[in-house]
Design goal:
The chain is globular. The chain has two domains: 81 residues, no CATH class; 197 residues, no CATH class. The chain is built from 14 helices and four strands.
């Protein structure tokens, strides 16, 4: 056993060395810098920050480099690092209405109050490979344009003024913290939203797509999608007031959903909500759709048996780090387990063969 352990340790060291060599690639090609990843692979950096629950573009870029571009591995690295950081306190809720919007669109009103800001988006691009990028061609600079600095009211605030959308009063209770306490069922909406914003983008997208195909009766409009920076404030007890400690880039989506009323609620529009670090439009919209599907009980709707309405199913399988750990552990040694099952199968086969009569064997 000692020899096997020693041999295993040496093999693991060699595997680590080989991995580092493969990560570096051809040494005749310049090494990829953290700054290059941060600035030119920013959407990948944003995903790692969002699902890793840590807003730090440089660390996210480092994790992507170390993980050879495997974003789930990079998210794992960021979450592991996050556990080593001290916690000084909690910031106040950010005011997304004061967001300096780089992008702000609405699918519900053409002339949205505050205006539509297309911003940097793939929505209107042709899906054609740009071979200028392969030739290291310089991209023409965009026309001068700054983010909207003045507060931009939310579309849903106007619907609320007409009384045609469900009122959602602010709660005075501090929400639970999913990073410090395990998820319990039944859950509440703040914890569900935390789980969805940390959830795997592909999984949340699949759940959202299922609601659009009829599995949850969830016809939604994008009331508003906005991307920009918001100030982060924190109360300082010694000072007696809040101070700004920095800013973060966020993507926020509010969907407006049809709702014909129930035994507890009148006919009106209802909301789905998504909020994600960085520019993460697909994730924010998906999150809003799934959030709305999971609200069926509080709205007095029928449960249609759709996967997206099953809180435990969605939230227990959304986390890609838990899923990866459980999935990948099966490639580790299971010699004892397999040998015991192998012996069981052999025994059952022998017993089955002994029960076969000579006539049955001849046939």
């Amino acid at each position: 056993m000692y020899v096997a352990v020693k041999g295993g340790e040496k093999a693991i060291e060699n595997a680590h060395a080989w991995l580092a060599e493969e990560r570096r690639g051809d040494t005749d090609i310049a090494d990829l810098s953290i700054a290059q990843i941060r600035e030119q692979l920013s959407l990948a950096v944003n995903r790692v920050m969002a699902e890793g629950s840590l807003y730090d573009p440089d660390l996210a870029a480092l994790a992507i480099k170390q993980a050879r571009g495997d974003l789930i591995e990079a998210i794992f690295l960021i979450r592991a690092y996050r556990t080593t950081l001290p916690r000084f306190g909690y910031s106040n809720p950010v005011k997304t209405g004061d967001m300096a919007c780089d992008r702000r669109v609405s699918a519900t009103f053409k002339d949205a109050p505050g205006g539509q800001v297309l911003g940097p988006t793939f929505d209107y691009t042709h899906r054609l490979l740009d071979f200028k990028l392969a030739a290291d061609g310089e991209v023409a600079p965009a026309p001068e344009g700054d983010a909207r600095q003045e507060p931009t009211p939310h579309i849903t605030s106007f619907l609320k003024g007409e009384g045609v959308i469900q009122d959602e009063p602010l709660s005075e209770d501090a929400p639970g913290d999913l990073t410090r306490e395990p998820m319990e069922f039944p859950s509440n909406r703040p914890l569900r939203l935390q789980a969805l914003t940390r959830g795997d983008e592909g999984f949340v997208l699949g759940m959202a797509y299922s609601t659009q195909r009829g599995y949850a009766r969830n016809h939604a409009f994008v009331g508003e999608l906005r991307i920009g920076k918001v100030a982060v404030e924190m109360d300082i007890p010694e000072l007696g007031f809040a101070i700004e400690i920095g800013e973060v880039e966020l993507t926020e989506c509010e969907t407006v959903n049809q709702f014909q009323g129930s035994k507890t609620e009148p006919p009106q529009f209802t909301r789905g909500y998504g909020l994600v670090f960085g520019q993460s439009e697909r994730k924010a919209i998906s999150m809003a759709l799934v959030d709305r599907a999971l609200r069926w009980k509080e709205l007095g709707e029928d449960n249609l048996g759709a996967a997206a309405q099953d809180e435990e199913f969605v939230l227990s399988h959304a986390d890609n780090i838990q899923a990866t750990g459980f999935l990948e552990h099966i490639k580790l040694p299971h010699y004892v387990d397999f040998q015991s099952e192998l012996e069981l199968v052999r025994k059952l086969r022998r017993e089955a063969e002994e029960r076969i009569t000579p006539k049955e064997a001849a046939e």
